[in-house]
C-alpha cells in the first residue's frame, strides 16, 4: 500500500498520508498533501454520516479506491470530486466483495448504522479525551524488548508487514495459545551473530551459521503488571537436551543432546533451530518457553534508526578497535552502525568480559523501550510506520505468532506493563571450576535456583500494584493458623512433573524425614501440570497448613474443596514441573539479592 498505488506518483511516505482527525479520534487517509489533487480541485472531507456525492462522473477523475479513471463508470461509479469523504481507517470492507445486486465492488466503505442526508442515526460522539486516548492506544499500542520493536497501527498495512516476516516451524516446542491466555508468558529473544546483510561481512567470522549470541528470556507475569528480562550468557556451560528440528518436508530431525557445552551452540550447530534453544532454556530454568523472536546485526541498525536514535550515557570515553566504537564521555544518541558497535563492544567496560557486555546491552534495550513508548514515537504515524516496517523485516519468529495480527495481540499484552516494573537481570553464574584459567561460566548453585523458583512462582522483582500485594496477602492467609501433627497428616502423592520417581521420592522423604507416615505413592498423575497443588477438604485445613510448611508450598498451591472429608479420606498432593527434589522448597523466595536494572531508569555504562 504505497503512494503510487493510491494514484499519486510523487515520492510520498505512506505514513504521512494518514493524519489524526480530532473530530473522530481516528487516523484517516489524506491523499492530497496540499489540499488539492494533481490536476483537480481541492477536496474537503464530508461530515461523518453524510452520503458521498456522485460529482465528477464526467471526464477525468478517480474512483473510490484511488484508481485513475479517464471515462465515466457504469453502474453508478463514484468520482473524486468535491465532497468526497476521507475513508476511515479500518472502516472498509474486504478489497473485493459483492454488493446487494451481486455486482463486484472494490474497496467500498462499510455502511454501518443507517443514516440520511442530514447525518441522522449517527452514533453518539465520545468525549474528545476518550477519542484521543482510543486513537493513541490503537495506533501506538507498542512494546519492545531487546532489539525487537512491534508496532502495527492497523489493518491497512497488514499485507505489507505480513510480507516482511520470516517464520520458523518449531513443531511442539512452543505454545500456540498463551499470548492472550490468563497465564504467564515466556518469550525467548535471540540475537544471532550471523554476518548477513549489507556491511556486516566485515565484522569477522562471516561464515558463521548464526549462534545464540545474545539471549534474553522475557517473562511476563500472569496479571501483566510486571516482567523479568533474564539475560543468559552465551559462554555459560550447560547441557543441551535432545531436540527436534522441523525439516522443509515437514518431517522432524532428531538431534542428540550434548553435555557440558556452551549455551550459544544450542542454535546453528548440528542443524539446531530456535526450538532447540527454547528446549535448552526450559531445561536450564524450569520455565516452558512459549515463543521466540530472533534478530541479527541488521535489526540493531534498522530499529535504532527507525526509532530516531537511542539515548545512551557513558561514564568515560570509549574507543574500541574491535567494535569500532569511538565516543566521548557523557550522553549520546546513537543509531545504525554506531548502535551496533555499542551493543557489540566489551573491551571498553569493566573487565571486558561478555558479562559486562550484557550490562551494556540491557542499558541499550531499556533506553530503546523508553523511546518506543514515548509520546514522540506513539503520536507519529511516520515513526510508527518506519518502526513497524523495520521490526517486521528484522524479525524471525515462530509460526504461531508469524502474522501481523498475532504480533499485534502480543504487543497489546506487553503494553500493559509499566516500564518501571520491567527488571533486567543476568543469570547468576560463577567461574567454571573445571578450567584452570576460566573463560566460561556455570550457574551459581545457590542464587540461580532461587531466581528460577521466583520466576516459576511468578514473583515480581519489583514493587507492583497494591491489589497484587493484597491478593498475595489473601493467599498467604491460608497458611496461617493451627497445624496438625505430622502423624495426623494423611496425603496421596501424584507425580505430574518431569522428575522421574518424584512421587516415591517425596513419600520416602515425608515418612523418613518429616514423620508423615500416612503418605502414599499414587504414581503418575492423569496429566502433566506446571504447578504443584494440594487439594484438601475444609476439615483438613490444619493438615494442609502442616504439609505446606514442610514442603515450602505457597498459598496459591492450596486448593480448598467445598465438602468435608469423610473417614480416612486423604488430601491429594500433585507434584508439578516446579518440583525439583524432595526437601527443596516448591516456592521461591520473596526477594533475591542480585544486581538488577530497571527499564525505567537511565544509567551510564562504566
3D architecture notes:
The structure is a single chain. By secondary structure, the chain is α+β, with helices and mostly antiparallel strands. Helices cover 24% and strands 21% of the residues. The strands form eleven sheets. An eight-stranded mixed beta sheet has the order 9-22-17-10-11-12-23-31, sandwiched between helices. A five-stranded mixed beta sheet has the order 27-26-30-28-29, with helices on one face. It starts with 17 loop residues before the first strand and ends in an 8-residue tail after the last strand.
Please describe the structure with a list of short key phrases separated by commas or semicolons.
606 residues; alpha+beta; Aminopeptidase; Alpha-Beta Plaits; 3 domains; eight-stranded mixed sheet; 13 helices; 31 strands; disordered N terminus
Based on secondary structure, the structural category is: alpha+beta
Helix run count: 13
CATH architecture of the largest domain: 3-Layer(aba) Sandwich
Mean pLDDT: 75
Brief overview:
The chain is 24% helix and 21% strand. By secondary structure, it is α+β, with helices and mostly antiparallel strands. The protein has 3 domains: 1-97, no CATH class; 140-464, Aminopeptidase (3-Layer(aba) Sandwich); 473-575, 2-Layer Sandwich (Alpha-Beta Plaits).
List the SSEs and their pairings.
Layout: E1 18-21, E2 26-29, E3 61-62, E4 68-69, E5 97-98, E6 104-105, H1 128-140, E7 143-145, E8 148-150, H2 158-164, E9 166-168, E10 185-192, E11 212-220, E12 227-231, E13 237-240, E14 243-246, E15 252-255, E16 258-262, H3 274-285, E17 291-295, H4 297-306, E18 310-314, E19 318-320, E20 325-327, E21 330-334, H5 336-344, H6 354-372, H7 375-378, H8 381-394, E22 396-398, H9 404-414, E23 422-426, E24 429-431, E25 441-443, H10 447-456, H11 466-477, E26 490-495, H12 502-514, E27 518-524, E28 533-536, H13 541-551, E29 558-560, E30 571-575, E31 596-598
Parallel strand pairs: 9-22, 10-17, 12-23, 26-27, 26-30, 28-29
Antiparallel strand pairs: 1-2, 3-4, 5-6, 7-8, 10-11, 11-12, 13-16, 14-15, 17-22, 18-21, 19-20, 23-31, 24-25, 28-30
Amino acid at each position: 500500500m504505497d503512494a503510487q498505488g493510491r494514484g499519486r506518483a510523487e515520492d510520498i511516505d505512506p505514513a504521512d498520508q494518514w493524519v489524526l482527525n480530532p473530530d473522530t479520534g481516528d487516523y484517516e487517509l489524506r491523499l492530497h498533501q496540499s489540499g488539492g489533487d494533481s490536476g483537480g480541485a481541492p477536496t474537503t472531507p464530508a461530515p461523518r454520516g453524510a452520503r458521498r456525492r456522485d460529482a465528477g462522473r464526467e471526464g477525468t477523475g478517480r474512483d473510490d479506491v484511488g484508481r485513475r479513471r479517464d471515462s465515466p463508470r457504469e453502474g453508478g461509479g463514484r468520482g473524486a470530486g468535491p465532497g468526497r469523504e476521507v475513508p476511515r481507517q479500518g472502516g472498509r470492507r474486504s478489497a473485493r466483495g459483492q454488493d446487494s445486486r451481486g455486482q463486484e465492488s472494490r474497496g467500498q466503505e462499510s455502511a454501518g448504522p443507517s443514516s440520511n442526508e442530514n447525518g441522522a442515526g449517527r452514533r453518539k460522539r465520545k468525549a474528545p479525551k476518550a477519542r484521543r486516548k482510543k486513537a493513541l492506544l490503537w495506533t501506538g499500542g507498542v512494546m519492545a524488548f531487546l532489539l525487537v520493536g512491534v508496532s502495527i497501527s492497523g489493518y491497512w498495512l497488514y499485507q505489507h508487514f505480513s510480507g516482511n516476516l520470516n517464520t520458523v516451524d518449531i513443531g511442539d516446542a512452543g505454545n500456540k495459545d498463551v499470548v492472550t491466555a490468563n497465564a504467564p508468558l515466556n518469550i525467548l529473544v535471540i540475537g544471532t551473530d550471523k554476518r548477513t546483510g549489507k556491511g556486516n561481512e566485515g565484522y569477522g567470522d562471516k561464515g558463521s551459521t548464526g549462534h545464540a549470541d545474545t539471549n534474553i528470556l522475557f517473562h511476563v507475569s500472569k496479571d501483566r503488571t510486571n516482567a523479568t528480562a533474564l539475560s543468559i550468557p552465551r559462554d555459560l556451560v550447560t547441557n543441551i537436551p535432545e531436540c527436534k528440528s522441523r525439516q522443509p518436508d515437514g518431517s522432524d530431525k532428531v538431534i542428540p543432546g550434548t553435555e557440558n557445552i556452551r549455551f550459544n551452540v544450542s542454535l546453528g550447530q548440528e542443524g539446531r533451530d530456535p526450538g532447540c534453544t527454547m528446549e535448552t532454556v526450559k531445561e536450564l530454568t524450569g520455565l516452558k518457553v512459549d515463543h521466540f523472536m530472533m534478530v541479527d546485526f541488521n535489526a540493531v541498525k534498522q530499529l535504532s534508526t527507525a526509532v530516531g536514535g537511542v539515548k545512551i550515557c557513558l561514564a568515560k570515553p570509549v574507543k574500541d578497535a574491535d567494535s569500532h566504537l569511538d565516543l566521548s564521555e557523557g550522553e549520546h544518541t546513537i543509531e545504525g552502525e554506531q548502535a551496533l558497535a555499542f551493543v557489540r563492544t566489551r573491551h571498553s567496560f569493566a573487565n571486558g568480559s561478555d558479562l559486562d557486555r550484557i550490562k551494556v546491552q540491557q542499558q541499550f534495550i531499556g533506553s530503546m523501550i523508553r523511546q518506543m513508548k514515548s509520546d514522540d514515537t506513539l503520536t507519529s504515524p511516520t515513526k510508527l510506520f518506519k518502526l513497524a516496517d523495520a521490526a517486521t523485516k528484522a524479525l524471525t519468529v515462530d509460526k504461531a505468532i508469524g502474522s501481523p495480527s498475532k504480533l499485534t495481540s502480543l504487543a497489546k499484552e506487553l503494553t500493559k506493563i509499566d516500564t518501571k516494573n520491567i527488571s533486567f537481570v543476568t543469570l547468576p553464574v560463577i567461574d567454571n571450576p573445571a578450567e584452570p584459567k576460566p573463560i566460561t561460566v556455570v550457574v551459581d548453585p545457590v542464587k540461580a535456583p532461587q531466581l528460577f523458583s521466583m520466576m516459576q512462582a511468578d514473583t515480581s522483582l519489583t514493587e507492583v500494584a497494591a491489589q497484587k500485594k493484597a491478593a498475595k496477602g489473601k493467599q498467604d492467609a491460608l497458611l496461617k493458623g493451627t497445624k496438625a501433627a505430622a502423624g495426623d497428616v494423611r496425603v496421596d502423592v501424584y507425580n505430574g512433573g518431569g522428575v522421574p520417581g518424584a512421587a516415591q521420592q517425596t513419600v520416602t522423604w515425608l515418612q523418613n524425614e518429616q514423620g508423615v507416615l500416612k503418605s502414599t505413592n499414587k504414581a503418575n498423575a492423569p496429566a502433566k501440570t506446571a504447578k504443584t497443588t494440594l487439594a484438601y477438604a475444609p476439615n483438613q485445613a490444619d493438615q494442609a497448613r502442616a504439609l505446606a510448611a514442610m514442603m515450602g508450598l505457597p498459598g496459591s498451591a492450596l486448593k480448598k474443596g467445598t465438602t468435608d472429608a469423610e473417614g480416612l479420606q486423604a488430601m491429594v498432593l500433585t507434584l508439578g514441573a516446579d518440583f525439583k527434589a524432595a526437601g527443596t522448597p516448591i516456592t521461591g523466595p520473596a526477594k533475591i539479592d542480585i544486581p538488577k536494572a530497571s527499564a525505567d531508569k537511565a544509567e551510564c555504562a562504566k
